[in-house]
Specification:
With about 200 residues, the protein is α/β, with parallel strands linked by helices. The protein contains 5 helices and 7 strands, in the order βααββαβαββαβ.
Length: about 200
Amino acid sequence: MHPHPVPVQALLVVDLQAAFVVGDNPVPDAARLLDRVDALVRRARAAGALIVHLQNDGPAGEPDEPHTPGWELFLPVNGGPAETVIRKTEDDGFEGTTLEDRLTAAGVVSLAVCGVMSEMCVLATARRALELEYRVVLPHDAHATYDIPAAPGISESVPAAMASRVAEWALGDEVEVVAHAGDVTFVATRTEPFADNRTA
């Protein structure tokens, strides 16, 4: 654990979509998660850090199917050159997206990751960021997942909090896990408009 990390230049908010945090089937303790992520976003905005909201495009019939209520991002997005939405179809937020280009254009070398799901998209995106040699801070109380169901003959159910902690551990000793979102601080990045020639 890193109790006092140095400031980071960007915040990646992973898949904080309505289907996962409100309604009939939110992740356990969703209110706490939303409070922590909202605070991170507010502090990043105040500091002038880059904020990227990743939004997953799920398959037809899934809770995060594009343009359904569950697909919508829960937190409002300010927009502008310092805050943007990048849609994705893979667990890894870098795969097939402009995320790396966006970070490079802003001069980002350090970032914090939060959101859902701990052992899927949060883990995959953080791992890829480490592979790309970004400095990655992961606040323990700002990512979440569901309980893992029991598997007959394999294991009992695994509580969500345990699954989240295992995801942190799986990232190895390069990731900087901090206990609280409040321990993460931000600094400003370049805010020139980003030219994205792709179509969604």
